[in-house]
TrEMBL record:
Domain HTH gntR-type: 13-81
Family named by the database record: In the C-terminal section; belongs to the class-I pyridoxal-phosphate-dependent aminotransferase family.
Membrane-spanning residues: none
Record-level Gene Ontology MF annotations: DNA binding; DNA-binding transcription factor activity; pyridoxal phosphate binding; transaminase activity
Annotated source species: Gallintestinimicrobium propionicum
InterPro entries: Aminotransferase_I/II_large, HTH_trans_reg/aminotransferase, PyrdxlP-dep_Trfase, PyrdxlP-dep_Trfase_major, Tscrpt_reg_HTH_GntR, WH-like_DNA-bd_sf, WH_DNA-bd_sf
Keyword list, A-Z: Aminotransferase, DNA-binding, Pyridoxal phosphate, Transcription, Transcription regulation, Transferase
Protein known as: PLP-dependent aminotransferase family protein
A Pfam family that the UniProt record links to this protein: Aminotran_1_2
């Protein structure tokens, strides 16, 4: 490894990205073997004549994606990564090099957890009874976003531009799958930001992921068994209960959904959020992603629904590629929205169908009209194409990153009583109690101080409670709050939970 020679690119790619790509590719090709030790960050930095922080960024990204393991006091080692899928095929017909280029950022699915388990509903009712008289001053909602920085003036300008074009066609019925020009733009965006490889013709545009999930009932057989992690996004679970033959839960570990249990479940379809799982905030490493893709490839009618939830906001390292980017067998249905990256009211989601399912969709769903108005589609297309979206998303990343750091800094005194997880990405993190309190006790005590936090039980589905979530855990969201509100909320929580202010 000390003899590695990187031909530095002069195309603007950051040095740490080039180091990351080189080591990743060496692992994929089997040149670096499982448990092989890598040079220390200091020695590799000296060898390559780059800063140590550059090497650290590359190593951190490789650890985040599951290619490397960091062993305290020993160093970095190659993780077990077998039978990697590699996208070595040429670009699909219809995608030009111009369409693949671009400098978009990321977007994915999101939404409120409206459907609670029976236990969560009972807990919520008890909470409402005991704390209804206390007004909520600080709401740590995991689903809130910051609308203070929304470019209202620019959005109005784009609307005027679209309407001033006197394009009468915008007021006529459009393509049921969404206007092709918007789908081309989304295709370029997904390829540049998430590594998704697709033709514009594979994309279906709809008013949110709820609608797109319901369309899948006509694509799948009605007798399918669908599998979900637990906890998960309850809204999707509820939608599948409306049309699937059976909906089952599969337990998870630190790497994500358990493949052996998934195999035993008899499921043909599995719903996962590999880049930022809701609500745990966990990222599925490359080894488990490969196992999941292998599971789908073993049977003709097995498919993976990838909800790319909350993956546009990452505060350490570069964005983690989508699962679809590694899918060589056409088994991943990729789904995302602009709800978190622009605004929930935009109500524009998109679904990328594998070629086999695309033909089935055309046969069965051609009678459905697109649920997003053509004017809104044109506004979104112009917002994306003009570069305004990328600039807005970069501003939001910086804003959320500051809030994330303020939250982590303010939580330091809490670490005597809580374990922290789900940090460094998304718009919420999790605190798990270590001193024996129940979730209801934590939520009620916070409410009495005028603070609203959210129990993990609200994302539990089905009858069984996974052993991994038995300890009381609360979600702390920060997207919709200012830094001052975050600090105020933490002061109130410290009083509610009897937190000593000194470490």
């Amino acid at each position: 490894m000390q003899d590695l020679v990187i031909e530095w690119k002069e195309d603007g790619t950051h040095l740490y990205e080039q180091i990351y790509q080189y080591i990743r590719d060496e692992i994929r090709r089997g040149k670096l073997l499982c448990q092989e030790k890598l040079p220390s960050t200091r020695s590799l930095a000296e060898y390559l004549q780059v800063s140590r922080s550059t090497v650290e960024l590359a190593y951190d990204q490789l650890v985040a994606e599951g290619y490397l393991e960091a062993v305290p006091y020993k160093g970095y080692f190659v993780a077990r990564v077998e039978e990697l899928y590699q996208m070595e095929t040429a670009p699909e017909a219809g995608i030009t090099s111009h369409e693949q280029a671009g400098s978009f950022s990321r977007a994915d699915a999101g939404g409120d957890c409206l459907f609670l388990s029976d236990a969560a509903c009972a807990s919520k009712a008890a909470l409402d009874d005991s704390s209804a008289a206390v007004p909520v001053q600080i709401d740590f909602s995991p689903n809130a976003i910051d609308m203070r920085n929304f470019p209202f003036d620019l959005w109005r300008k784009v609307n005027r531009n679209v309407l001033n074009l006197n394009n009468r066609d915008l007021f006529l019925p459009g393509d049921p799958m969404g206007d092709l020009s918007l789908r081309r733009t989304i295709s370029r965006y997904l390829h540049a930001s998430r590594g998704v490889t697709c033709r514009p013709e594979q994309i279906v545009v709809g008013a949110g992921n709820d609608y797109l999930l319901m369309l899948l009932r006509y694509v799948f057989e009605e007798t399918i068994t669908a599998a979900f992690e637990n906890p998960t996004y309850p809204r999707a679970w509820k939608i599948f209960q409306l049309f699937a033959g059976e909906v089952v839960t599969v337990s998870s570990d630190a790497s994500g959904i358990c493949i052996e249990e998934l195999e035993k479940s008899g499921a043909q379809v599995v719903y996962v959020m590999p880049s930022h799982q809701y609500p745990t905030g966990r990222m599925m490493p490359i080894g488990r992603r490969t196992e999941l893709l292998n599971w789908a490839a073993r049977e003709k009618e097995r498919y993976i629904i990838e909800d790319d939830y909350d993956s546009e906001f990452r505060y350490r390292g570069k964005p983690v590629p989508s699962l679809q980017a590694s899918d060589a067998a056409g088994k991943v249905i990729y789904m995302g929205t602009f709800s978190k990256s622009i605004a929930p009211a935009i109500r524009v989601g998109y679904m990328v169908l594998p070629e086999v399912l695309l033909e089935r969709y055309r046969q069965k769903c051609a009678c459905f009209s697109c649920t997003v108005s053509r004017v809104d589609q044109a506004v979104l297309e112009q917002f994306l194409d003009s570069g305004a979206f990328e600039r807005h998303l970069n501003r939001m990343r910086k804003s959320y990153s500051r809030k994330h750091e303020a939250l982590l800094d303010g939580l330091k005194p809490f670490f005597r009583q809580f374990d922290l997880s789900g940090e460094n990405a998304g718009l919420h993190l999790l605190l798990t109690d270590r001193v024996g309190r129940s979730e209801k006790e934590l939520v009620d005590a916070a409410r009495r101080q005028g603070v609203k936090v959210y129990g993990l039980s609200s994302a539990l589905v089905g009858a069984a409670v996974p052993e991994a979530v038995c300890r009381a855990t609360v979600l702390i969201g920060f997207g919709g709050l200012t830094e001052d509100e975050i600090r105020d909320g933490l002061e109130r929580l410290a009083a509610a939970w009897l937190i000593e202010k000194r470490l």
